[in-house]
Specification:
Elements lengths: L5 H6 L6 H6 L17 E5 L2 E11 L2 E9 L22 E7 L2 H5 L3 E7 L4 H6 L11 H25 L2
Antiparallel strand pairs: 1-2, 2-3, 3-4, 4-5
Length: about 160
Amino acid sequence: MHALSATTLRASFVNVSTRERSAIVIPADIDETEWDRLDYVGWRDPKAPLLGFAVAVVDGEPVGLQLRQTEQPTRSRPQCSWCSDITLPNDVVFFSARRSGKAGRAGNTVGILVCSRFECSRNVRRLDPPAYLGHDAAAARDRRIDGLRQHVDAFFRDLRDGA
């Protein structure tokens, strides 16, 4: 992912109103982000702990989504829909996101299970120990990275297009 400024991040949100967009709190340390190690950037609002924000580059353009965590916790430890990490180094929570455009204004939303602090890019880059003799851990890591990119891209396209 290439570096994005705070202004670009804020302008990228497609499923919020103009007032909501101006209220988005961009992380203070965004300039120190290691962009080359991210497949998307995500953060939580410290003043509104149920809100999450994620921005990915889709078709060469940044697309931002506001996500809302449900207040009801999950009954079991679910698997993240984006990184599919099975070692569960972190919590996975259920987020809902309003669709963009007319569908979103009509109240249509989509739900997804995602790492609570958006650690997916770090999770897929971990080099796990070999599962069996001859296992190519680097190739497995590359497949996890590709899978994350595909899952994130599909989710963002679905919400951006508002269908």
